[in-house]
Amino acid sequence: MSVLGPRGQAFLWALTLRLVPPAAGAPPEERARSLAVADGALGRRPPAVRRQVRLFLLALRWLPALGYLRPLDRLGGPAQDRVLAWFQDSPLTPLALGLWGVKGLVYMGWYGRPELGERIGFRPVLSGDEKSRGG
Amino acid sequence: MRSRVEDREFDVDVEGSGAGGGPVAKELAPLSREGVRIAVLEWGPRLRDVDYTGRELEMAERLYRDGGGFFTRDRTVTLAMGRAYGGSTVVYTGTSLPIQGRTVARWAVPGLDHRDLGERSEKYLRENGAHLLEEGELNENNRLFREGCRSLGYHAAQFPVNVRGCRGTSLCNLGCPNGAKQGTHRVQLPEAERQGVAVVTGCRVERIEEGACHVTVENPGFGLPSPWPPGRYRVRTRLIVVAAGAIESPALLARSRLPVRLPALGRYLTLHPALILVAQHDRPVVGSRGHPKSFICDAFAESHRFLLETCMYFPFVTARNLIGFGADHAAMMGAMDRLQMILALALDPALPENRVTVDRHGEPVVRYRLGDEVLDSLHQAMLASARIFFAAGARRVHAPAGARFFLVPADAARLEEAIPRRRVRPGRISITAAHLMGGCRMGEDPSDSVTDAWGQVHGLDWLYVADASLFPRAAEVNPYITVMALADRVAQQVRERLARA
Ligand SMILES: Cc1cc2nc3c(=O)[nH]c(=O)nc-3n(C[C@H](O)[C@H](O)[C@H](O)COP(=O)(O)OP(=O)(O)OC[C@H]3O[C@@H](n4cnc5c(N)ncnc54)[C@H](O)[C@@H]3O)c2cc1C
Ligand code: SF4
Fold first, then answer.
1. For chain B, which domains are there?
2. pTM over 0.95
3. ipTM for the predicted complex
4. CB-CB neighbors (< 8 A) of A86 in chain B
């Protein structure tokens, strides 16, 4: 079952587009798979962690409204980046850590998919390399 | 799951099957022939060959506690702990380094000397097939590190790795798909089983007391099923050897409410807090081919308290450890076949306030503060690594505390400015730890230690500890060989104890 729900997933995808620009070209099935990986991983974490992540996503979406009168995902790209950088460098450790956690979720969804390996130059060969037979 | 509690009976229970539990099981195994019943109770699963898929997230879920996402209480450090038949030795890289004399002297545990640890370490280096890879087996990532260090005059040495028939897939931290890495799942546990030791996987020890431990058996849905049906058990036993690792061993002792006062329990935890540092070259540096790890630079161990080692990480872990996002981040991640990587390990002090406690459910809570001393070390490690990267020819270097995402060769002359110390803050940079040590430290005085120099818990002659939690301070090198050497001492003590009885 989805932890984030459709709205949470839509927001996570909006973040994905800022954090991982190549995701903009992703076809719908790739977007779905990336979100499923992130949501699924969150589902395996303890309930307290799930709650914290959901809460932080809410804060990340709506705190910018205090300054910009709009939630994060309704801002232009550069403004979104400024907000994300502000969270990342925040002297308030919980805000910096919260963003680090959410980035982790996004990167898990995007880079944690084995099928991406070829595209980014990560090509381990499971049965090994005939050339390098250490030991 | 059954609600009835079933009984089982053994003479010795070893709890945990990693670098500590494996050698204890193997060393005690010959006693099976004399009728001594020995069991290893292991929380994690026993994987079949086909379960090693090399897929990052899948293997992390299968082999690591909390899928690799176990955090300190303030969430500033991610702790990596293996949870499997073989414990963390299934996911370790196999760096096989014995402890140094100066560290044993710092440990200052009466009754523990470097010669004894050295001899026992040698035994395990041999047993695990540790050896230096040949020149032709070193991959580009390792060669670049050596070249960079040499051209700067930093001392870098090749270390042995414990592989037999390594095929250079570089997947060691996801479990070796070729059975080449010689963890306890390949060496000590199979030997113990051959001699009659029972290994029960999927079996979490919840609580211990004199004469018994209380366990729950569950099957995870992959790997081989546990030899015991799922349910709760009381396992009667004469002696207990706890080897559940530096987080779970102190937690197990704490939740068991033992009939002795152990004020040092859980305290003096050290982690070797680590940074993964990454640089991009113009030409291929295919880290995903060849064994990932062969070199260490110890030039700063005494002066700035850090070590640098070669390493290779997988896409998700790499992405998470780069600080930043957007186009630069994606450019770095899109060049996985041109990345050089260095692991920086801070040699952290043992402080009583860094400790493992338990929450109301008995689960471990790790309180660990990244003090200025450690942050200074990590800062210096970033500077030294950046120098090594540039000296090795990297075009772009990412320092997690860098003023910009990418540093370029022109920055090499003013690295202090480009990587300001003030940006090295907990929460802002990504810090991980895989060398978890202490919490049941050895010593003479029960006010600041938990066991004696042979792993027996103060005041309890039926209870021993035999894992990384015994370390009174940090190992100051990769710890597994020292864990094995200490476990060997504990096994000797248990043998003598049984002989006396
Ligand atoms: C990714 C990674 C890479 C590493 N690389 C190296 C390296 O190259 N060289 C090196 O020297 N060191 C390395 N280390 C560190 C090394 O693996 C550990 O220091 C060593 O394995 C610790 O031994 P241990 O017995 O204390 O714990 P572990 O080996 O972790 O074993 C503890 C076992 O106890 C089990 N357990 C926990 N709780 C319970 C319970 N309640 N009931 C039953 N069982 C339980 C766990 O499932 C686990 O299997 C690495 C560690 C990691 C995680
Ligand atoms: S590099 Fe060698 S030891 Fe490591 S996973 Fe590959 S085959 Fe196994």
1. 5-67+76-129+183-268+442-500 (3.50.50.60), 135-160+274-347+371-425 (3.30.410)
2. yes
3. 0.94
4. none
